[in-house]
Predict the structure.
Amino acid sequence: MGATRMRRAVRTSLRAGATLLAAIACAAPSSASAESPEDDRKQGASESRLGSATLFAAGVTSGLLAHEGGHLLFDVIFSADPGLQRVEFGGVPFFAITHRSDLSPRREFTISSAGFWTQHAVSEWVLSAHPDLRRSRRPYLKGLFAWHLLSSAVYTVAALGEIGPAERDTRGMAASLGISERWVGVFLLVPAACDVWRYFNPQARWPRWLSRAMKAGLVIAVIRARG
């Protein structure tokens, strides 16, 4: 039953993430010239779509690397002996950056949450510097933003359901703070939901400030970590 529940949760979160990825990717308008001959116009439009898709994928990849880079940075700072380990989430294989298990709760929380700190900083920069992102021709930035939403969706499901590999970031964060993992899920879900609202309604003020407050709170929480 537990494995079935996990697989269903993973499929649900991945479907939701894929839907968001598709919606954001398809929002990039074509840059083909209307003054070109018909054949050139069609070829230009095809090349434009291919180029946009490539840049979008590069943005998603950059978001992933930034997230993992945040973990790795503090692994190195704390001399935590970082390494790579193959893990699975609901039957989906991927890798995790691991570190030794004898760190203080404060250092454990810092390393576990650093990936979210990084993606929150990147997403905040993207939405603040480009509030018109949905209507703009910026596939790379849309890919960065899409990674933020996809990562938040998957980790939120893992935290709220308390499922997934033991190495998951949200579990380490919750253990370091001495709280339920579900609270960590809330701190990921709320800013991601607010950022979706900001993407479609850039003039709205309350989701902007609520998102920023929750993101800042996840950093300030390091003070609460025990020692």
